[in-house]
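U., I forgot to send this yesterday:
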Amino acid sequence: MKAIISFLLSVMLYISSFAQFGIQESLFLEQLKDQELVSIIVKGDIKKIKETCISMNVNLKYAYQDLAAIQIEKEKLGAFYESIGQGKIEIPLGKATTLMDTALIHNNISPVHNGLSPLLQAYTGKGVVVGILDSGIYFEHDDFKNADGTTRIRYIWDQNENTPSNPPAPYNFGQEWTWQDINNGACNHVEPANQYGHGTTVAGAACGNGLATGTNTGVAPDCDIIAVAVDYYDNNFLSNTVDAVDYVFKKADALGKPCVINTSYGSYYGSHDAKDFASQLIDALIEERAGRVLVASCGNGNNIDNTNSSFKETHLSYPLSSDTNFTWFETMTNGTLYFDLWADTSDFKQAHFSIGNNNDTNFVDNGNLDFMTVNSFLGNLSQGVYLTDFVYNDQADEQGKVEMYLEETEGRYHLEFLITPSRTQDNWRLMLTGSGNFDLWSSRAYQGTADMINSGLPPNFVLPEIDFYKLPDNQKCIVSNWQCSDKVISVGNFANRSAYYDVDSVYRDLNLTPGEIYYKSSEGPTRDNRMKPDISATGNIIFASGNLDFIASALAINRPKVAPGSMHNYNGGTSMSSPIVAGAVALYLEANPTAWWYEVEAALKQTALRDTFTGPIENNVYGYGKLNAFELLKYQAILGCTDDTMFNYNANANVNDGTCLPFIYGCTDTFSLNFNLLANTDDGTCIPIVYGCMDTLALNYNPSANTDDGSCEYPIDTVSIKDIQENNLFNIHPNPSQGKLIIEVNPDRLAKVLSAKILDLNGRLIKEYDIKSSKQSLNINALSAGVYIVGLIENGTMIDQQKLIKE
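Result:
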C-alpha cells in the first residue's frame, strides 16, 4: 500500500472529474501525468469494450468471460468510461508483501519420488510447467539446471525492467528471456537484493533438483520452470499479477504441458472475498481449460509479533445493535487517518454510522458527525458517491475534516474514510449502531492505514461509554484478493523442524514443535465466511536453493541462515509451504495432465492428513489437514455430481465436476400430449395422445381426441365451426341438453318456410320440427345420448347448422 496523503484542492477537483473512482484510486491517479499508462480491469459488454479500445487506440491485453485487462493513458479514462456504457472499471491497487530435506518426509513426498507401490512409477513433475510468480530467480543455480548444464527454466519475465529490449506482448512492459537466451549467456536478469533471494528459495522448494549439493531437493525436481519477477511495491501489482498468470498459462499451452502456478506474496488490503475484478479475472484464467491450477500462500498475519505488546490487531467486525459501539483509530505518520470497511449490502442497509473525535489524554468528547446511513449518500452508488463533512466541538471549533466515499459493487458496500485532523495527537472514533454487520481491516504496518487502538483504554468511571468499546482482533487475517477464491488453493504453514545445523555445523534450536501450526500462519475464514486455508504444509523452516549473491552476504554477516554446502539457505512462512503444495500439484498433473482445478483441489482435500494437531474436522487454521503427497498420487478421481439432493447424483463420484442438475418434475414421455422437454423426473401427469377429428361439426367428431389428425368428414353443404359461429343465424340452448331444447331464430326469417332438422353424424335425418316463432321449445327426450347436428332449413335448403350434445 502506498502511504495515504491528505487531500489537496487539486485532488478534490480531480475527484470531481472522476467520481467513479474511490479515495485510494483517485489519490493514485492524481500522482500520474496525463500521458502515463494505467492498468485497469473492466467488467461489462466485452464486444462494446473491444470496440471502444479500437476507436480510442487503447491496449486491450486480453479478455475472458466479461472481464478485460486494459492499459490506458490517464487522460483517456474519463472518455473511456463514458464510451463503455454500463461497464464498470476497477484500478487494482495495493502493495504486496512476501509471505515466507525434512519437508519431503513431513509432506509424504519421498514415496512419490521413489514410486512406491501402488504407484506404477516415480513422479517428479516431468512434463509439467511450474510457474513461479515472485521476486525473481537466481537462474544460474545448479538446482535449476539439467545434468548437461542446460537450463530447466523455459522463460523469465522481469516486470521490473524499466528499459527493456524485449517486452512480451501483449503486456508491453518488462523484459523477457527464453531458455535459449539463458543457455547462450544472453540473460542478465538479477533478483532484487532487497528480497534476499525470496523467489529463488520459493522456486527451489517447488522445483529444485538438488544438483548443486545432492541435498535439499524440491518437490518437483524434473518440472519445467517459468519465472516472473513481480514488483511487490508497485501500485499496479494486482494487474501485473493477473498479467503474469495469463503469461505463464499461455506459455504452458504453447509448450503443450499442464501448469501449476505458485504465488507466495499478497496484499492485506481489500475485501478479502475474491470479488475484486483482478481475482475474478484470475478465476476466469483458471477455468479456461483443464491442466491449470494456482496455489497461493494464505499469509503470515495471524500474529505479526507475539512478543511485542504494542502489536496492533488488524481486523474489526461485530453485529450491530441498538447500542452505539465505537473503536478508536490513531493518526498516521503523515498526519491523516484512512480506513475502509466492507459489508454485504443486505448487512448494512440498516446500519447507522458516524465519525467522532476524542482528546487522547483526558478522553473528552470533542464532537462527532450526525449519524448517517447508506441513504445519506445521494446519487448512483454503483458509480460511487463522495460526501465531505466537518467535526466541531461545543465551542464550534473545527476538529477535522472527514471525507467519505461509498460504492456499491458486486453485492457489497465499500465505505472509505479519510480524516484530516486539526490536532494529530487526538483519537478518532468510528461509531456504529442499528442492525447488520461489517468487516474492516486497518494496519499501518500491513496496509499503510490507520492503526486501531487496542490498549491503554480508560476505565469506565473516567469514560462510561468505554463499556461499548469494540476491540480489534486477528480473525479473518488471510491475505486479500485471489487467495480468497474457491478456485485457488490457499496454503497454511506448520512447523517443519525443531532445529537444524547451519553451514558451520552449529546446532540451531528453533523452539518449534514439528507438525504444529506456525503462530503467524494466517487463519480464515474469508470476509463472506468461506473456509480458508484449504490445506497446510511445512513452512518453518525449509532449506532450499539460495540466491548465491544473498548467500555470499549472509556468509559474511548472517551465517546461521546458510545451509551446509553454501548453496542453500533457509526460509519460512506460508511463502515456503505454498510451493511445497504447488510442487505436489505438479506431481499430480504429471500423472493426470488433463485434470481440472476442481479435481486437483478435491484430491488435495480428500487425501489430507488429520492428526492431533489438526483435529478431526476441517477448520480455518489447517484447512482440510496436512499435505499428504503419497495419498494424493494414489487418489483415483471419479468425476460427477456429488450432491445427493440433485437429479444426477452419482454415489460413486468423489469429485464434483459442476454438472449437478436440480429435479424438474413433469411428463417425461415423449409420446405423451404434455411431454415436458425440461423435465427430468416423471410426476405421473402424462396424458396419452389420442388422434382423431376434433372439429365438433364434423361427421366423425371424436370427443376423446386431443390431437387432430386431419381426418374430419363433413355432410354435404355443411360448413366449418368458424363459419357457423360467424353466420349465427340461429341459436340453441341449453347445450348440452337433457330433453328440452330452445331454438331461437331471427324474426326476419319467419316469413320464410322454416323447419329444424336433427341429423346424426352420418347425415341421417332423426327428427324434423316446423318453426313457427322466433323462440320455440323442442322436445328431444326421445333422442339417445350422443352428438347430433341441428340444421336450420329454409325453403328446403339447410342455411345454418350447429352441434347438439344430448345427455
